[in-house]
Amino acid sequence: MAAAASNPLPRHIAITMDGNGRWAKARGLARIAGHKAGLAPVRMCIRECGSRGIGALTLFAFSSENWGRPAEEVGSLMGLFLESLEREIAELHAQNVRMRFIGERRHLPVRLQARIAAAEERTAGNSGLKLQVAVSYGGRWDIIQAAQSLARECSSGALRPDEITEERFAKALALAHVPDADLVIRTGGEQRISNFLLWNLAYAELYFTATLWPDFALADFEAALTFFGNRERRFGHTSSQLGAVQGRGS
Ligand code: IPE
Ligand code: IPE
Ligand code: MG
Predict the structure, then answer these.
(1) What domains can be seen in the chain, in order of their start residue?
(2) What is the pLDDT of residues 13-28, one digit of tens each?
(3) Which end of the chain has fewer CB atoms at under 10 Å, N or C?
């Protein structure tokens, strides 16, 4: 922790938790065993973000495209989401976590939708880590649903088209309540976005690791924070403009 603590921490970490299937396959297990084993690093990341005062964590659990997987895997995953939520919600609440789900929830099983609504309601007053779980989520879906809601406001006369600024648009997106992602972590060795947050990644630092998600341990999380702490975030400016405020250990 010492190495990362002296450098700035991300305000919002987004994680693509990839590699569960390969983890299971390497052990001769069914893919769902990999998804189950992915729960331990989820708990670790939530705990670490909370204890370090990182404001927001967004976890990519199931993409719009993942609906195209074999029905058996999709069904097992939906069952696992339901079970995990039932089991973990009391502990998350005790940790003062505020939980939200982002994604196209009308596609989810009705029981899961009900659990999600209950979890969001139960933790709505919590002031700790803002935890977003992206299920049935796609970055393009998010942008389209924002555009549709703004278009509806325009056609009702509540909004003028020239009032659609970046700020106004961002408020219509699923992550309106958290700052843009500062750090994206993707496990499993692929270096792609896979339709995760598109708008909110505009200036994120990208950390890729070959570690498979079920193996992602505290040392890996700390390595990602150290990577982030060593970036010089220029946001289009020059290095010298940043002065002593930002930069590698300066
Ligand atoms: C990520 O692991 C979890 C989901 C997409 C639901 P994968 O299931 O994609 O694992 P790999 O990439 O096949 O190893
Ligand atoms: C991305 O992983 C989605 C999640 C981790 C939930 P995938 O395994 O679905 O990504 P691709 O298809 O290999 O890009
Ligand atoms: Mg994958």
Answers:
(1) 2-249 (3.40.1180.10)
(2) 999 999 999 999 999 9
(3) C
